[in-house]
Each structure stands twice: as structure tokens, then as C-alpha cells.
Design goal:
With 149 residues, the chain is mainly β. The chain has two helices and eight strands, in the order αββββββββα. It has an eight-stranded antiparallel barrel. β5 and β6 (97-109) form a beta hairpin.
Length: 149
């Protein structure tokens, strides 16, 4: 009987992970292709595409005070799974290289993407050298995303 209850609980848990079923966050228009998201530091994530498998591509423009590689687009890759999201920027493009990588991981909820991030520089030798923080992104608008193409 305990096994049956556990399997039923797992089944309901899996249903909750599916968009639009159970109590999970709806897959309304949360993280879609051709959307733009700006964080509290003024930086913008432009999502060009989210494939059927959840792979995310786009660009990121850094405007955070105290960080290099600003005001020019850098390629973004990542994944979306339901309301979970992760994306990464290699801070190197045709204009500039900051010799580092930043990864954001978080979730979409109530119109915001809330993330924790970590920035690591080439040559880092200790976890204490990895910078970290939190960003909250709000939708900037589809029209703004389209102007970046």
C-alpha cells in the first residue's frame, strides 16, 4: 500500500511539472521567443528563440556599474524547463573580451525572472574568487527585442 501511495504521489508530482496541469506555474507567456527582460542593474536579456526542446538563444547587453564588457551584445545560450531557466554568457565578442563567463539560474514567477548568478574569470583557482549575486528581470517588451536584430 505504501508503494502504491508513493507512486501516486510521484505521478501527481510529475503532473505538477507539466505546464498548465496541476499547481505548477502556467507556461503562459513567461519566457518566450522575441522577448526582452531588464534587471535592476539596467542590463537586458534579449531572448531570440526558445526551441520546442527548451533551448534558449539570444543576446545580453551588460549595463551593470562596476563591470566591464558594457553596452554591446554578447551571445546567450541556455535552457527553459517549465518555469525554470538557466542561461550563460561568455564575455567575448568582436568588440571586447572580459575573459570571463557568467551563468544565471532561476525561475519565472508572477511576471519576473528571479536568478542567482556566478561570474568566473579565466585563471580562477579558488571558489572564493567566483563572484556571485542575484538579479531580478522584468519584461521590457517585444518591440525592444525586435530592435536588437
Amino acid at each position: 500500500m505504501k508503494v502504491a501511495r508513493s507512486l501516486i504521489g510521484i505521478g501527481f508530482g510529475l503532473l505538477a511539472l507539466l505546464p498548465g496541469i496541476g499547481g505548477a506555474a502556467e507556461a503562459d507567456d513567461s519566457v518566450r521567443s522575441l522577448s526582452a527582460w531588464t534587471n535592476q542593474r539596467g542590463s537586458t536579456l534579449y531572448i531570440d528563440n526558445v526551441s520546442a526542446s527548451g533551448q534558449l538563444t539570444g543576446t545580453y547587453i551588460n549595463r551593470a556599474a562596476g563591470f566591464g564588457c558594457q553596452n554591446t551584445p554578447y551571445p546567450v545560450t541556455g535552457w527553459v524547463l517549465g518555469n525554470a531557466i538557466t542561461f550563460t554568457v561568455l564575455w567575448r565578442n568582436a568588440v571586447q573580451s572580459c575573459n570571463s563567463i557568467t551563468a544565471w539560474t532561476g525561475f519565472y514567477y508572477q511576471g519576473r525572472i528571479t536568478t542567482l548568478w556566478q561570474l568566473v574569470s579565466n585563471g580562477t583557482t579558488s571558489p572564493g574568487q567566483i563572484q556571485q549575486g542575484q538579479d531580478v528581470f522584468t519584461r521590457s517588451g517585444k518591440a525592444e527585442a525586435e530592435t536588437q536584430k
